[in-house]
Amino acid sequence: MADHKFNVTIVTPDGTIYDKDTTMIILKTQNGEMGILPNHIPVVASLQIDAVRVQLEDGEDKIAVNGGFVEFSDNAASIVADSAEIPEKIDVTRAQSAKTRAEQHIQHAHEVHDKDELARAEVALKRAINRLSVSQK
């Protein structure tokens, strides 16, 4: 059975937030969605703001990952991200407030034609939506 699993670890500047054995991970890279199974060829890919889905024998874990990169080799996946949260650690009220603020900033950026503010607000909105989506497990 060991040949049918591999380890996935997610680390942020605050430390390791996830470390389990899995049968498959599904993640969204800059080039599209990617699934990794045991014995996959080595790969390094940058990640989009999205949920990383970890397949387990009894279900699936979802982790909100805000960018970063994945490196897979020797049957181990390491995900390094600026921030990442498991559903139980997501403050839904804070995420909803961040979503509302980002939407207000987007509206303001459109009104004043500020492309930099718009770009920052769109990233903030993606992060908030990702966190809210993962929190609903």
From TrEMBL:
Keyword annotations: ATP synthesis, Cell membrane, CF(1), Hydrogen ion transport, Ion transport, Membrane, Transport
Domain ATP synthase epsilon subunit C-terminal residues, every copy: 88-136
Gene3D superfamilies: ATP synthase delta/epsilon subunit, C-terminal domain (1.20.5.440), F0F1 ATP synthase delta/epsilon subunit, N-terminal (2.60.15.10)
An MF annotation (GO) of this entry: proton-transporting ATP synthase activity, rotational mechanism
Cell location: Cell membrane
Domain of life: Bacteria
Matching InterPro entries: ATP_F1_dsu/esu_C_sf, ATP_synth_F1_dsu/esu, ATP_synth_F1_dsu/esu_N, ATP_synth_F1_esu_C, ATPsynth_dsu/esu_N
Topological type in the membrane: Peripheral membrane protein
Residue intervals of the ATP synthase F1 complex delta/epsilon subunit N-terminal domain: 6-84
GO cellular component term of the entry, any: plasma membrane
Assembly description: F-type ATPases have 2 components, CF(1) - the catalytic core - and CF(0) - the membrane proton channel. CF(1) has five subunits: alpha(3), beta(3), gamma(1), delta(1), epsilon(1). CF(0) has three main subunits: a, b and c.
Protein purpose: Produces ATP from ADP in the presence of a proton gradient across the membrane.
Family (UniProt): Belongs to the ATPase epsilon chain family.
PANTHER family on file: ATP SYNTHASE DELTA/EPSILON CHAIN (PTHR13822), ATP SYNTHASE EPSILON CHAIN, CHLOROPLASTIC (PTHR13822:SF10)
Protein name: ATP synthase epsilon chain
Provenance organism: Paucilactobacillus hokkaidonensis JCM 18461
